Amino acid sequence: MADVCFQMKGTAVTAVVMDLYDYSCAAFFQQLKDKIDSAPQFFNASPLVLNLSQYNGVLLPDQLIQVVASCRELGLQPMACKAVTDDLLSTVRQLGMASLPASNTRATEIQAEPVAQIVESVVQAKLRPSKVITKPVRSGQQIYAEGSDLILMAAVSEGAEVLADGHIHVYGPLRGRALAGVKGDTDARIFCRQMEAELVSIAGYFILNDTLREQCWKQPAHAFLEGESIQVAAI
């Protein structure tokens, strides 16, 4: 029997989502450059998903090609488009990108289950233990707490990434990226003893280093979601 050449797994990948509203070649390039210059280490080689669902008017194939070219020129890595129209589908494929549906939501058929079974499932979910990491998380590492909170007893270095379906607690400096509620929990929070993060994200909403520097920088802080805006407050 031949040796196994590979194994395929599912994983959590952080990607920047760009909601495209309008397109003017010069204005788009300059605005994107300004945004990337505000946090160059975060955006450098970051995977990018273009969301076309909120575009005003009709985006032409040549315009999409220019958008992708500008993103690549500035160091982003466009990998997929959401809400692709039939007129753009062949262009998306020619650009080597995937086409994603406009929404990840889907209808779910509700079936009756015994009450005892439902209660048992809820209790098991609530009792799932937190993931505890006692060593520093170094640059290039990714730690993910699936279905639970993440507790980090040491520093999270610049270039590291920590993710959790629940809350994130960092008992040391937070200098990398922290993403809580990655499966959509808007009540998730991020706590740290020293806020120096490149990015904090809750349920898909995020703020970058330039904004964080104006709020509790290098202080004990926690981040939480208020509406569609992330707030950072001192502890």
Task: Explain what this protein looks like in three dimensions.
By secondary structure, the protein is α/β, with parallel strands linked by helices. It folds into two domains: 85 residues, Alpha-Beta Plaits; 104 residues, 3 Solenoid (Pectate Lyase C-like), CATH 2.160.20. It is 24% helix and 29% strand. The protein has a six-stranded mixed beta sheet, with no helix packed on it. The protein has a five-stranded mixed beta sheet with strand order 6-8-10-12-13. Strands 1-2-3-4 form a four-stranded parallel beta sheet. Helix 1 packs parallel to helix 3. Belongs to the MinC family.
Helicity range: 10-25%
Q: Give the amount of beta strand, in percent.
A: 25-35%
- Runs in which pLDDT lies below 50 for 5 or more consecutive residues are 104-113, 115-124
- The coarse overall form would be globular
CATH architecture of the largest domain: 3 Solenoid
How far is the first residue's CA from the last residue's CA? 59 Å
Q: What's the average pLDDT?
A: 86
**Protein structure class:** alpha/beta
- Continuous helix count: 6
CATH class of the largest domain: Mainly Beta
Lateral arrangement of strands in the main beta sheet: 5-7-9-11-14-15
Major β-sheet profile: 6 strands, mixed
Summarize the structure.
The protein is α/β, with parallel strands linked by helices and 235 residues long.
Describe the secondary-structure layout.
Layout: E1 16-19, H1 25-38, H2 40-43, E2 47-51, H3 61-73, E3 77-82, H4 86-94, E4 98-100, H5 115-126, E5 131-133, E6 142-145, E7 150-152, E8 161-164, E9 168-174, E10 177-180, E11 190-195, E12 199-202, E13 205-208, H6 209-212, E14 221-226, E15 229-234
Parallel strand pairs: 1-2, 2-3, 3-4, 5-7, 6-8, 7-9, 8-10, 9-11, 10-12
Antiparallel strand pairs: 11-14, 12-13, 14-15
Helix pairs in contact: 1-3
